[in-house]
């Protein structure tokens, strides 16, 4: 079988960023509220932020993080933990309204060896899933196919958020 390449040049930003150690993009986004559109910030509160993942596993992949730069659950206050879980709930509500997934994966990675691309800032992944969304691209080539632009999805989620008064903390 002949091997073929699928080019994904948008991914180089992530790879180069890991090598350079560009700092914490979550903290960067928190410090620049005027750039929320550009930084793909869906919601922010005094304690937390919700952003679209720039390198998603699936359409609608969100990251939920505390505003404080902490790397582990034992560093979070009870109030931060409660709000993070409420934001998972509200994210699922918004995504369900906007793109009607059949289910969700919700997870956390701790430490570089645990799969954390940003090991020093605690964050939760909310990944919408659809029946049959694992296809030959993922199985055979380790490639994800995202069917909607991040800016279009952000606009859709903000519209749904306004219509349904989300997040409702």
Q: Name the beta content range.
A: 5-15%
Number of E strands: 5
Write down the overall geometry.
globular
CATH fold description = HIT family, subunit A
What's the overall average pLDDT, rounded? Answer: 85
Give, in spatial order, the strands making up the sheet with the most strands: 1-2-3-5-4
**If classified by CATH, what would the architecture be?**
2-Layer Sandwich
Give the C-level CATH assignment. Alpha Beta
Largest sheet: 5 strands, antiparallel
Number of domains: 1
SS class: alpha+beta
Task: Return the string of H and E elements.
Answer: HHEEEHEEHH
Rg of Cα set: 16 Å
Helix content: 25-40%
Contiguous uncertain segments of 5+ residues: none
Number of helices: 5
What does this 3D model show about the protein?
The protein has 169 residues and is of the alpha+beta class. It has one domain (10-163): HIT-like (HIT family, subunit A, 2-Layer Sandwich). 34% of the residues lie in helices and 15% in strands. It is built from five helices and five strands, in the order H-H-E-E-E-H-E-E-H-H. It has helices at residues 12-20, 25-31, 78-99, 136-141, 150-163, and strands spanning 41-44, 48-52, 62-66, 103-107, 124-129. A five-stranded antiparallel sheet has the order 1-2-3-5-4, with helices on both faces. Strand 1 (41-44) and strand 2 form a beta hairpin. Helix 3 packs across helix 5. The longest helix is centred in the middle third of the chain and has 22 residues, at 78-99. The termini are far apart.
